[in-house]
Design a protein that fits this description.
The protein is an alpha+beta fold. It folds into three domains: about 90 residues, Winged helix-like DNA-binding domain superfamily/Winged helix DNA-binding domain (Arc Repressor Mutant, subunit A); about 160 residues, Beta-Lactamase (2-Layer Sandwich); about 90 residues, Enolase-like, domain 1 (2-Layer Sandwich), CATH 3.30.390. The protein has a five-stranded antiparallel sheet with strand order 7-3-10-9-8, sandwiched between helices. Strand 4 and strand 5 form a beta hairpin. It is elongated and about 95 Å long.
C-alpha cells in the first residue's frame, strides 16, 4: 500500500460516524468473545440503538470497503481484519480496571512467602502468573546484566598456553585458555594479573577498559610490550565473559491450544510454536517493545515474526529504581485477545516486577 493510500485510509477511519463506530465496536467485541463471524441480525439485537438488520448490513458493507472487516466465507458473517483490530485497540478500546483479586494474586505470587527472592525466581513467577491469568503464553526478556569481576589470575599450563581464571563478585569461576606471546615469563603472568586486578578495584569492567584506553601510554611505560599485550588480551576476554547473554523465558504455551477451533487455527498455532522456538526473533521483537514507552501491542502481520501465525503480542518494559529500562515482559496469543483485560494485567505485572527487583 502506498503512503498516499495509507493516509486516505486513515482519514476514512477517523471519519466513521457514531453509528458505524458503534456497529464496528460491537462486532469486534462479539468476535473477541466468541471467535465466530458476526451477522447483521445478531448485531442488530446487540446494539444500544434500534436498527434493522438491513440498516446494519448497509453499514457493514461500508466498513468492509474501508478495510476494517471482511467475510471469511460467502453468505457468512463478518470478522475484523488486522487493520480493524488495530483501529479498535487504538481508537475504541476501553481498558478495564484490573480486579482487586487479580492484582492481589499477582502481588502474592511475585513477592513470595518468605524472604527475598532472586531475580530469576521473580521473572519466572511473572511468566507463570501472567500465563495463568491471561490464558496465553507469557514471555520475559531478562535484564541486561554486567557480571562484575573481582579477581583475575593467569596460570601457565604449557608452551605458550595459559589458563585465565575469572572470579566474579558473586563467587562464580570461569576459566579460559589463551595463547600467550612467545618469550613471556611466569613472572610476567603475575605482573599482568596484578595490573588488571589493581584496576578492577576502580569500578566496573567498562570503567576499567575506559581508564586503560585513556592511559595506553602509561600501560606501555609500566609494563614491557609482551606483558602489555597479555593485559589487553585478558581484558578482551574479561569483557566477553562479563556480558551475560539475555535469556528468554516462555511459559504457558499449552494455554494456546484452548483457542484452536479449526484446522487452520492448528496450523497457525504450529507456526507460532515455531516462532517461539526461534528465540532470536522473539528477543528482537521484545527489544523493540523495550525501547518504547508503556505497553506496546503488535498485531499479526504488523510484525514479520507474526506474519504467518496471525498472533499478537502485548508487552511492557520494567525499569530500575533510576527509571532505566532493564527488561520487558508480555503475553503472546491469537489476535483474538481480550485486550481490555490483558493490557492492564501486563502493565501491572511489569510495574510489580520493577518494584520487587528495585527493593532487592
Amino acid at each position: 500500500m502506498t503512503k498516499g493510500a495509507q493516509l486516505s485510509q486513515h482519514a476514512a477511519l477517523i471519519d466513521l460516524n457514531a453509528r458505524a463506530r458503534e456497529i464496528f465496536r460491537n462486532l469486534v467485541a462479539s468476535y473477541l468473545a466468541t471467535g465466530e463471524p458476526v451477522g447483521s441480525r445478531n448485531l442488530a439485537r446487540q446494539l444500544p440503538m434500534v436498527l434493522s438488520p438491513a440498516s446494519v448490513r448497509t453499514v457493514m458493507s461500508d466498513l468492509e470497503r474501508t478495510g476494517l472487516i471482511y467475510a471469511p466465507h460467502l453468505s457468512a458473517g463478518r470478522l475484523p481484519t488486522e487493520l480493524g483490530l488495530r483501529f479498535f485497540v487504538d481508537a475504541l478500546l476501553e481498558l478495564a480496571h484490573l480486579p482487586p483479586e487479580e492484582s492481589a494474586h499477582i502481588e502474592q505470587k511475585l513477592d513470595g512467602e518468605t524472604g527475598k527472592r532472586s531475580m530469576a525466581d521473580v521473572l519466572t513467577e511473572a511468566t507463570l502468573v501472567l500465563s495463568g491469568l491471561s490464558g496465553t503464553a507469557a514471555v520475559v526478556l531478562t535484564p541486561k546484566q554486567n557480571l562484575c569481576l573481582k579477581h583475575v589470575e593467569f596460570v601457565l599450563i604449557g608452551d605458550r598456553k595459559a589458563l585465565m581464571v575469572l572470579v566474579s563478585d558473586e563467587g562464580s569461576l570461569e576459566n579460559r585458555i589463551l595463547t600467550i606471546p612467545a618469550g613471556l615469563s611466569p613472572s610476567a603472568l603475575v605482573e599482568a594479573a596484578n595490573f588488571i586486578n589493581a584496576h578492577l578495584q576502580q569500578g566496573t569492567l567498562s570503567d576499567v577498559l575506559r581508564s586503560i584506553a585513556e592511559k595506553r601510554d602509561t600501560l606501555q611505560l609500566e609494563l614491557d610490550s609482551l606483558t602489555a599485550r597479555l593485559v589487553e588480551q585478558g581484558l578482551a576476554i574479561s569483557t566477553e565473559s562479563s556480558t551475560r547473554q539475555r535469556h528468554l523465558i516462555v511459559r504457558g504455551k499449552a494455554n494456546l491450544l484452548s483457542s484452536v477451533t479449526a484446522a487452520d487455527d492448528l496450523e497457525r498455532l504450529r507456526l507460532l510454536f515455531s516462532d517461539l522456538e526461534t528465540q532470536t526473533d522473539v528477543i528482537e521483537l521484545l527489544e523493540q517493545a523495550e525501547a518504547g514507552e508503556g505497553v506496546r501491542i503488535y498485531i499479526g502481520s504488523e510484525n514479520r515474526l507474526f506474519s504467518l501465525s496471525g498472533s499478537a503480542l502485548i508487552a511492557a518494559p520494567f525499569r530500575s529504581t533510576d527509571q532505566q529500562v532493564i527488561g520487558v515482559l508480555g503475553v503472546i496469543g491469537p489476535t483474538r485477545l481480550n485486550y481490555a483485560r490483558v493490557i492492564p494485567m501486563v502493565d501491572y505485572t511489569a510495574r510489580m516486577v520493577a518494584q520487587i527487583l528495585g527493593a532487592d
